Amino acid sequence: MLEKTKNNKEMKQTRPVPSVSKGVDMSKVKWTSEQQDAIYEKNSNILVAAAAGSGKTAVLVERIINKIINEKIDIDKLLVVTFTNAAASGMRERVLDAIYKKLEEDSENENLQRQITLLNKASICTIDSFCLEVVRNNFYELDNVSPNFRIADTTEIELLKQEVLEDIFEKKYEEDNDEFIKLIHTYTSYRDDTPLKELVLKINNYIQSNPFPEKWLTDKIEMFNLKDRLDEDFANTIWGKELLKEVDEELVDILSTFESISKKLTLDKELEKYYQTIRNDIDMLENLKRSLNSWDKAYEINQNLKFPTWPRQKVESELKDEAKKIRDDGKKKLSKILDKILIYNSRQANEDIYDMYSILSKLKNLIFEFNEEFSKRKRNKNIVDFNDIEHFALKILLKEENGKIQVSEVAKRYQEKYLEIAIDEYQDSNLVQEYILSSVSKGNNIFMVGDVKQSIYKFRQAMPELFLNKYHKYKSKKDKQKEDDLKIQLFKNFRSRDNVLDFTNIVFQDIMSNDLGDIEYDEKEYLNLGADYPELKQNFATEIDIIDLKEEEKQENIENDEIFEEKNEEEEERVENIELEARFVANRIKELIEEKFQVWDRKKNQYRNIEYKDIVILLRSTANIAPIYEQKILSLNMPVFSDSSQEYLGSIEIQTIMSLLKIIDNPMQDIPLVSVLRSPIFAFSDNDLIKIRIEDRNASFYQALQKARMTMDTSLKQKVEYFFSKLSKWQKEAEYMALDELIWTMYLDTGYYYYVGLLPNGQVRQANLKMLFERAREYEKSSFKGIFQFLRFMDKLKESSGDLGAAKVIGENEDVIRIMSIHKSKGLEFPIVFLCNSNKKFNMKDLNAPILLHTDLGMGPKVINRKMQQEYPSLALEAIKIQIRKETIAEEMRILYVALTRAKEKLFITGVEKDLKVEMQKKEEEIQKYAVTQKLDSSLVQKYRSYLDWIELVYLAKPKEAQELIEVQEHTPKEENSQEETVKQVSIQEIMQGQKEQDLKEIKQALEWEYPYQEAVLLPTKMSVTKIKEQAKEAENIENTKAIVEDVLTDTNKPPHVYRTPNFMAEELTITASQRGTLMHLCISKLQETEEYTIDKLKDLLQQMIKQKQILPKEAEAISIQKLYEYTQSSLFQELKKAKEIAKSNPSGETSFSNNGIQNATQLSKVNKHNLRDYDKNRDKIYIVCGTDNLYKDVQNLYLQEFEQSRIEYNEKQTREDRKIDNYFKHISNSKLWDLACEFIIELGDLEFWNDKDMNYRMKMVDVYKEQVNDLMKVVPEFKVANAVIHFDETSPHMHLVGLPISDNNKRGMKKQVAKSKIFTKESLKRIQHEMRSCCIKSYNKHYEKASLLKQKKKGRNQDINTKDMAGYREIKKQIEKKEQNLAQANIQTKKLDSASKDIDVILDNLKPTKLNKNNMVISIEDVDKIKKFTDDVQDVTQTVRSVNDLNMAIRDFEHSSFEIDKENCSLKYEMELKDNEINHLKSELSTKDKIIGKLQVEKDKLKEELNKFKGFWRSLMKHFQNKIGFDKDENYKNVSDDLYRNGIFDDNDREIAKDPRRKILTNDELEEIRAKKRKNRHDFNLN
């Protein structure tokens, strides 16, 4: 399929332009005309659209230098905003270097000297630093903001958010807030409220990227308030416009393919009918397209939209088949989008939107409340986060006056100060930053540099739309008028060779467009060659390597248009495939190194051999993949580094120290404790740990360790004592020592830091421990304290960052292969780039969220109605989903662009395909379908979801151009595996060479050695109690079976095997204390608070429970009636009697109603067997309401009754015999398009409801269900019932109805037809379910004389008896039948034995001594055979009776175990409720205590602060006295100081100063500095 293409074109270039960096004389650089424009143009806003590698940063630096040197503008008059601190630092260095070079030429230049001084306070910084400066200098403009605030760590902020949310939720629960409870019911499961918390945080974080977050959220939620606009056309809403636009785009796409094929059909006259059909389709779709200005009109046309039947003319033509395939694909695509969008009329769509207004308003209130409380907590702690800084700056710079936003006086001062504002990486700005920088500009002095094709930070709320709007609005130099803003394009790339640029251009000119990618990639956007490389005969063509798996088992065909289904989560990649690709990449790198591939060295100005540092491996995501690549590269002895070379918190050294911290905080944690003991720190062996555990099997391990301390032998006792001494020491130190100091002390005390340095990769391990120390230092600066909070801090750090990369121990110039994500590679360049894992699918998981957010379209929620158990996407959600999907694809395109443009000299792209040939054929068919000429259609590109798919599309669409630039090579897994095997084989041969014969024998003996205890190997290291129990039971069953066989086969004189007696047959049933408690709880649950109980009444209650088989008589004896009576007389029971309402676990019944299709006659037979219990001869527990006991015949008869006349009329109209229908029942059964029949299942009540109901109560349901049959035929008159049967033999009585949904007056085919999909639509089923539920409740209440409503069944498919229970039921039925057969057989055998025993008696009578032979008895051979046969028959009967006895026992076991399980379930449920109540009570107490502790902590901090202030005041006072009074003469001063000391105001230091005037008085800051130095001297914190 793919031929290996080679590019043997020699590269004939001259020397490259040197990169503009530190050390390069900028005056000697040759700037292009476009770069010069960017450097010198002024007096307007300027947007520089700079392609990758075009030197945009160098241009920005040169512009700054030009401003300060040539235009004589002081550098502090410029505001330069960069994306990172590193970029700002680099820019300062470049500017400083340029100034020094100018000073060498003119050393007396005062202007340049002044610039060096001003550079230190110049505003060359990130946007965060600039905002921080604005806030610090103008804090007085803000309310309740202290000037000495601290910027909190991200993790500290996350912990604080969680704390605030938990407090708010706890408060809402206590208040029983109605709004909050509705939110809980809507957005949470029954397990916990985490989903609602996550939703609040998600929305709150999102709106922070808006300049006015609260206003944005309020406005977007108000869009749902359509109360007065319910009858307006939905097309007028922002969502309706977006949805109709999507339908229009899909129609354009389908019509273009239909038009294309229709033109082909005109070339063959035999295909006239097919051509006419396609033309009719086109007319119909164009009519729909014209109606898209009105929602209702489009909805109406869609409801009546029906494609004409494809002609069945016998014409052999490939073109006809192609046309049919294109038509079917178009119909499928159209149906898919219309079934999601045009499903309601305007009224219904508006009502859906309005229904969500109330719940979204409640959600908004909760978010605002959270924000208010969160801000208050931050003020109390005097901390701010980065979002606060930006919004504080915005509040300072902008003011609202008369409803309009205007710049403040502060902003005007900044406008006067800054003569120009330069913004680097402008494509990554967000709306808040845009407002801030616009407010300090004069309106025509902003210089912006960026490349929208490299905007890859959408997940950080970057808005490439800001760049695009200016890109389209600003004018080029030749078109610019005086008042216009200027756009300058830098299109020359000074980084890469032409092969890299040409490949990038050919890919993006085909896939990137305005529709998909936000920009049209044409000649204006091409990367043009700007670098010149010397001539070298070497192949630099881009290499695409695809590993073709060619799986024998074909994967399920997934239609391309279903590629982006939100339900299809991102595919999990197989590790084996990643390993194959990683192995190939490692081998390919080794080949490059060994063949000494040449790269250009700009510093040495010559070609040199490739080095490891010249190579980078780029991955879309490094998680779980980078370690595999690292392992494969290391296996070939090549150095490699990855930011995720090992998971930081998952590394053994960090886990060990974290476990140690956990047991210092709380030693009662078994797993951390055992981990620490087993680690090299304490070096306990497995046997040591076993000995300790044996000391006390039931206590915690720490308690067992304490006991072992007293009883163990000397060697183990020493280890235990050493552990306790260290633990005690660290626990004491933790009370007063800072956490970072404690951790370093632990490192030194244990020597663990030095130990890990001796392990493999020890440098990284030590760096990891240093990083943990630094994390602890950061934590100490936060508002949280203590080890427990630090452990939470680290957990939150792991959640927010995914995980931390291993500590970085290499520099920029280290000679290693680098593995990094594409995002991290932005701004970097490498001679050789491997883009790997290119077949990874795009992540669309975010589209499954319950609420989607979009800057323009607002909020897209799911419509959730918990009462009706309904949840489905709103049209607003569908509109936002479409937009986000497009934006995600555009983002992925830009990420691919960044990846391709990192390469300087050669680019490798690798990936894996399941079946390359099939995939390429499919893509070729798609390309032909879209009739691709110049550019790939955006609809076609949108179908595919990986970089490799896009590149393959381009390769197939432009084969001629692509083959000149690309080498495509196929590889198989066998090739890669064989390479690895070869390496291993060679290494073994090398080992074997030169070995002595004796050595070889020893090696052979060692290799062939077998472990003598092989059975022990099969034992699992961990086994649950349940598993042990199951194994014991299985062994017992095997023993019983063996005993039975032995009894039958051995001598009958041997005593029979004694079988185990089941528990329920045991003479003595022992009741444990816990069981007695459970029985008491069960009795209490049966008490009615309205009753007055006596001893006799309670006895009657127990007898009733025994009768209903809820308890056994023996269990009843264990229940204390006296205690039950005391409980009924207690104050608690009396309070319950007075209560207005009591919440008990006594659920009311449920109603459920489901509809299932029966596809063919085979399925109908199965339904017949199940519904009519064909496997059970005894049908006394089913009741036939309608039809006969043969459902199959009932349906056949209904077919004849309903359709026969219509079939005859249809056949009379047909002229061709092959179109006539002989039997409509068989015709539908053989068809795959229609269902043969439908089955409804109606159920009232669940297992809990019917558990204690007797058969008489259940039988009343017959009257209820009879009414349901009539009700169903009224609600759905098109549905004709063939058979209805009620089941009383399962968990709850329910009815199965089988019938036919019939459509009448059909225009095509028979007049009457079976039509399930037409009659039972999504909307109609909702209506039917609602009406039938009402009917069910009405009938139930009528026949049972009830007034309460039944609750609806939980969401999910309705089921009869579950599969497991049914299997047990059938097994017991079979055993009962077998028992009856065996009993009958035993009776027959017994009768035969009776008659045979008479013959035996005769034989025995004849066995008497004769006169001739008195000692011997004579017996004939015939008599011997009779006796033998009789003995065998006796054994057969014995065995049969035994088997019947066994079956009896099994049946009784089954019945009793079922009863026991039901009873235990009831008890457990009650116990769980009691535990839940207890837990809730404890939670409430804990929450109250936490609040008290929190208040006390705040008071303590305030008092501490006041004390420090007071001390500071006294120090100032003393300093004043020193200056004004002579201490040696003034006794009064000394008396005053003594009084202050006695009263505790002065400490020893203060008193000494008072006595000695020569001592220096220190301020608080100076004292703290001295203490820090002392701590530093006391402990060795030198990390180097």
Please describe what this structure looks like.
Helix content is 56%, strand content 10%. The chain is an alpha/beta fold. The strands form 8 sheets. The protein has a 7-stranded parallel β-sheet. Strands 25, 26, 27, 28, 29, 30 and 31 form a 7-stranded mixed β-sheet that branches. A 6-stranded parallel β-sheet has the order 3-2-8-9-1-10, with helices on both faces. α17 links the parallel β8 and β9. α1 crosses α2 and α2 crosses α3. The longest helix has 104 residues. It is globular, with a radius of gyration of 43 Å. The protein starts with 32 loop residues before the first helix and ends in a 6-residue tail after the last helix.
Topology:
Layout: H1 33-40, E1 46-50, H2 56-69, E2 78-82, H3 85-105, H4 110-119, E3 123-126, H5 127-137, E4 150-151, H6 154-175, H7 178-187, H8 194-207, H9 213-222, H10 238-265, H11 272-290, H12 295-303, H13 318-341, H14 346-381, E5 383-384, H15 386-397, E6 398-401, E7 404-407, H16 409-417, E8 420-423, H17 431-439, E9 446-450, H18 464-473, E10 486-490, E11 492-493, H19 498-511, E12 528-529, E13 542-548, H20 575-594, E14 598-601, E15 606-609, E16 615-619, H21 626-635, E17 640-642, H22 652-665, H23 670-678, H24 686-695, H25 701-711, H26 714-736, H27 739-750, H28 752-757, H29 762-781, H30 787-801, E18 817-821, H31 822-825, E19 830-835, E20 851-854, E21 858-865, E22 870-873, H32 875-900, E23 903-913, H33 916-929, H34 938-943, H35 947-957, H36 959-965, E24 966-971, H37 973-992, H38 997-1007, H39 1014-1017, H40 1025-1049, H41 1073-1086, H42 1095-1107, H43 1113-1117, H44 1121-1128, H45 1131-1138, E25 1150-1158, H46 1161-1171, E26 1182-1186, H47 1191-1213, H48 1224-1230, E27 1237-1244, H49 1247-1250, H50 1255-1259, H51 1261-1275, E28 1279-1287, E29 1294-1303, ...
Parallel strand pairs: 1-9, 1-10, 2-3, 2-8, 4-5, 8-9, 11-12, 13-23, 13-24, 16-18, 16-19, 17-18, 19-23, 25-31
Antiparallel strand pairs: 6-7, 14-15, 20-21, 21-22, 25-27, 26-28, 27-29, 28-29, 29-30
Helix pairs in contact: 1-2, 2-3, 3-4, 5-15, 6-14, 6-30, 7-14, 8-14, 9-14, 10-11, 10-13, 10-32, 15-17, 20-21, 22-23, 24-25, 27-29, 33-35, 35-36, 41-55, 51-53, 54-55, 56-57
